[in-house]
Design a protein that fits this description.
Elements (H helix, E strand, L loop, with lengths): L4 H10 L6 H22 L30 H5 L5 E2 L2 E2 L7
Antiparallel strand pairs: 1-2
Length: 95
């Protein structure tokens, strides 16, 4: 697939981009290069190949799930005007 200058101008209009004549030529070359790359990828036979989530099989390094900060909820809620069961109570705003 090869784009024309009119195609590039239409794409720029849809994207609300102002492009000059030199920018249209440069963008046409870049977009045609992208389309050529996509066509090359489509030409590769991928039958029998399972889809992968990542190009390299790797695992996530995880740290131990341990509490490192003290529980200060009661201290913070002591200054609140209304608290119930560990939750802040606020006036109803929406009817």
């Amino acid at each position: 697939m090869s784009l024309t200058d009119a195609d590039v101008r239409r794409i720029a209009h849809l994207a609300r981009l102002a492009v000059s004549d030199t920018e249209v030529e440069a963008a046409r070359g870049q977009l045609n290069g992208i389309f050529d790359m996509v066509e090359a990828l489509r030409a590769v036979d991928t039958t029998g190949i399972e889809p992968m989530a990542h190009a390299v099989e790797m695992g996530q390094r995880l740290r131990d799930d341990a509490v490192t900060a003290p529980d200060l909820r009661d201290k913070y809620q002591a200054a609140a005007p209304a608290v119930e069961d560990g939750l802040y109570l606020v006036p109803k705003v929406i009817e």
